[in-house]
Design goal:
Elements lengths: L2 H17 L6 H20 L8 H17 L8 H13 L44 H7 L19 H13 L7 H24 L8 H4 L2 H9 L4 H16 L3 H12 L20 H12 L2 H7 L7 H7 L10 H6 L2 H22 L5 H16 L8 H10 L6 H10 L5 H24 L1 H13 L2
Helix pairs in contact: 1-2, 1-3, 1-9, 3-7, 3-9, 4-6, 7-9, 7-10, 10-11, 10-18, 11-12, 16-17, 17-18, 19-20, 20-21
């Protein structure tokens, strides 16, 4: 592995992290350029024979790419401050599902980092869990940020599921209050580097070039969302990849446990259940996954009762999933608002049925890749870090065209409020994917590659 290649990518990751603190157009240009450079370098590297220590080199430079994000507070969102708070609340013996961050009952847990404008002796006037209104305008007012704290939505309970909460608690136990979000940033960076090693090792085991793992490990997106923003999606990604690998080794119970745990970190991984479902064989994996997901809530259900659902209903309303509308940027270009929700639901069912139909006919990583990627294109969620699992799945499946989807999500995120522009950005990513799939099916060389991947993926 040439040192200049790793150094160039590390410099690119540093540029993206630093540039993202700016509010101008430059961060988007830097991110797009860095991603294109990464893909080009990966392609060039894989044209040459791999050295004996290539995996070690990939992992070391993956660690270097995470360092810039650790030097400053989170950039792309304030989610990490909520993570810190949730972990701290649980260590105190309370539940983040039944107490909101501004609750005066938890005033002794405040510190100057999380609450720069509210000391433990100050009163916020908030006590007890709020009742979530059904009116979108009132809900938006209740969930608005408060200048007295860095925690987002401080007047509503948490949204994060139990395995994520366990993760927050463990990190909080090991992190002093004065370190702020650093413990979570370090943990996310370590997970990203460990996943790089896992991907590279697995690719080598499948007789594929391990250097393709740099598309995850050296990605500027991963640098932004792991070492910098500390998003819990990195943990969900690691569990999804582990589930895919155990499924390929025909370990249905372990696969179900891992997939259920991933769903209990972030709900989105549950969309992959159809990829693990067969109509002709035993359906152990989806049953265990759903059981694991449900079981993870038991202790919290005993502690918080029905409050265990947290802010989830409100979040779904704000994202357009429960009020009959849809934020799908692509569908918004083509359909009136009243038909988007139904269309998205029909597409989701069709994708699920196709995944079940394809079970056993292609590697599970391939099915998970296009299923997850298509789900993102249909729903176009507001937050681009939801695409982290797709990057790892694209590397594992060898379907690199899907990397266009998370890149487009960042460009659209920067265009928030410009609906047509957002739709066109996502539509461009969909066209890139569609063209690549068409070319693959028509190219003899790609057919041979797919046959080799299919043989090695089962």
């Amino acid at each position: 592995m040439p040192l200049w290649v790793g150094g160039l990518i590390a410099a690119g990751a540093t540029t993206v992290v630093i540039a993202s603190a700016s509010a101008s157009w430059f961060p988007n240009l830097a991110l797009l350029a860095a991603c294109l450079l990464l893909v080009a370098l990966a392609w060039l590297l894989t044209r040459r024979p791999a050295g004996p220590h290539v995996v070690l080199g990939i992992v070391l430079f993956a660690a270097v790419c995470q360092l810039p994000g650790l030097t400053q507070p989170p950039i792309t969102s304030t989610d990490a401050y909520r993570y810190v708070w949730d972990g701290r609340v649980q260590l105190s013996g309370s539940s983040p599902y039944s107490h909101v961050p501004l609750d005066d009952a938890l005033a002794n847990l405040r510190d100057p980092i999380l609450f720069p404008g509210l000391s433990p002796t100050d009163r916020s006037g908030v006590t007890g869990p709020p009742r979530l209104p059904h009116d979108p305008a009132a809900l938006a007012t209740l969930s608005a940020d408060d200048p007295r704290t860095l925690i987002n939505r401080p007047s509503v309970p948490t949204i994060y599921p139990p395995i994520a909460q366990a993760y927050f608690t463990v990190v909080a136990l090991l992190t002093p209050w004065s370190a702020g979000t650093f413990g979570l940033q370090f943990a996310a960076a370590a997970l990203a580097v460990a996943l790089t090693a896992l991907l590279a090792t697995e690719l080598r085991r499948r007789n594929r070039d391990p250097r393709w793992a740099i598309l995850w490990g050296w990605s500027p997106i991963v640098a932004l969302e792991a070492g910098s923003a500390a998003h819990v999606d990195v943990l969900a990604t690691a569990l999804i990849v582990a589930a895919v690998l155990t499924a390929a080794r025909r370990k249905p119970v372990l696969t179900g446990l891992l997939l259920g745990a991933a769903g209990s970190v972030k709900l989105i991984p549950l969309l992959l259940l159809p990829a693990f479902t067969s109509l002709r064989r035993q359906r152990t994996t989806p049953s265990v996954a759903l059981g694991t997901f449900a079981a993870s809530y038991l202790l919290h259900l005993l502690a918080a009762g029905t409050l265990v659902i947290g802010f989830l209903p409100g979040y779904l309303t704000q994202e357009g999933f429960s009020d009959g509308s849809s934020r799908s940027a692509i569908l918004a270009l083509l359909l009136p608002p009243e038909t988007r929700q139904l269309t998205a639901a029909i597409l989701a069912v069709a994708l699920a049925l196709l995944a079940i139909h394809r079970h056993g006919r292609e590697p599970i990583a391939v099915t998970c890749c296009w299923l997850y990627g298509a789900a993102l294109l249909v729903t176009t969620p507001t937050y681009p870090w939801y695409g982290l699992p797709l990057i790892a799945l694209a590397v594992l499946a060898g379907r690199f065209e899907w990397l266009a989807v998370p890149v487009a999500a960042y460009l659209a995120y920067a265009s928030f409020g410009h609906d047509v522009r957002q739709g066109l950005i996502h539509l461009t990513a969909a066209l890139i994917v569609g063209i690549a799939i068409t070319v693959r099916h028509r190219s003899p060389a790609e057919k041979q590659f797919d046959a080799r991947v299919r043989a090695l993926g089962h």
